[in-house]
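Deliverable D5.2: sample structural annotation.
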Amino acid sequence: MKPVISITMGDPAGIGPEIVAKALSQPFVYELCRPFVIGDSTVMKMGMDVAGLGLKIFSIKGLDEARFQYGTIDVLDLKNVDTSSLILGKPQAMGGRASVEYVTRAVELAMEGKVQAMVTAPISKEAIRMAGLPYTGHTELLAQLAGAKSVAMMLVAGPLRVAHVTTHVPLSQVPALVTRKRVLEVIKLTDEAMRALGIQKPRIAVAGLNPHAGEGGIFGQEEIEEIEPAVQESCKLGLEVSGPFPPDTVFARAAGGGFDAVIAMYHDQGHIAVKLLGFQWDEERMGWKKISGVNITLGLPFVRTSVDHGTAYGKAGRREGTADPGSLIEAIQLAAKLATGRLQKATKLWQI
């Protein structure tokens, strides 16, 4: 049976509604899963108009009403956006609050077992802060809602898979957060994720925190005191882990097939490597030629994937209909693959 997948609309003032409409205009998506949107029907209609599509919007109050049919987008309508005051392309408290409510409802459905995966369109940290909410991003919000003790962000772009020890914190706080316990947690989560993707013996590389991975302590002690002990402990558990490696070369080795995944120590260390592969800038058009990559939250009791980009307020505000849905489509495909794997595993266990 095809998995049921919720797609949160994201910030109503961003490109979320447009790219969701574009993704669900692809017939093959309905061959992979049974998708529906959690959002606001009126805003989704606006997004569809911007995208220049002729699909129908079907507003539902519950999943029992969903049709899951290509040509009609099922929208679990929370009716939480006043379109008369919505300004596309600008962060607003209303949009920040609405985007959090979409994610909250998606988590509730996942925890109730009514959906097998959730895919999230981009939200704005600024808009969420304007709404007076304490969340710094999807990962932190999802962990709190799901009651997950240990989560990690993994980005995927082509052959490169990168999990992060730390994410949305100031760089000055990173060294204190790179502990033996946390590095080991992320290694374990990454190994589990790779196995779920069908890699039976994942080869995991761990990046250092400091230049040259500390150069034997010359440029820092974190590798010696925290990172290397975590690598050694993971090897004792039977995992195929190596490092710490100099950060300036390990990602290139992984992209070339040397490793199945890399553990990055902080946000930009991993994000820059992934987006260098997944993003392409067109200087003549002054815009992104390609936006590719998927964000996976590891450690949750359900599958969650997301786009690897932001709300693109500038593009949304111009209403050009040129927002690239590539990353969202990839996120749906990966969510469907992971959720289908879980369903098949559950079916085998039941048959036993």
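Annotation notes: Residues 326-351 form the longest helix (26 residues). Residues 346-352 have pLDDT under 50 and may be disordered.
The annotation will be released with the project's public dataset once the embargo ends.
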